[in-house]
Write a structure and sequence with these properties.
Elements: E1 8-15, E2 21-29, E3 32-36, H1 48-62, E4 65-67, E5 73-75
Antiparallel strand pairs: 1-2, 2-3, 4-5
Organism: Homarus americanus
GO molecular function: structural constituent of cuticle
Keywords: Cuticle, Signal
């Protein structure tokens, strides 16, 4: 089926030993498999200082600044 896009929207439920049910919903398409449920563990958000350090590192890489394992700074200057 040329030009077709297949998207699957599915879910499954399972009983908890203590009663009640859990449910996981998911989408499967050309972008992959993406489950969704409050039962799926997620990483803690990064603290603000870590996000700032990542931004600084990305800016340094963009400017050509790199660090070696011994702490030496190398700046590449284009002429």
């Amino acid at each position: 089926m040329a030009g077709s896009i297949l998207i699957l929207l599915l879910s499954f439920r399972f009983p908890f030993p203590s009663g009640g049910y859990g449910e996981v919903r998911y989408v499967a398409d050309e972008l992959g498999y993406r489950p969704s449920s409050p039962l799926i563990p997620t990483p803690h958000p990064l603290p603000a200082h870590a996000i700032e350090q990542i931004r600084i590192a990305e800016d340094q890489r963009r400017r050509g600044i790199t660090f070696h394992s011994r702490g030496v700074i190398v700046v590449v200057v284009e002429e």
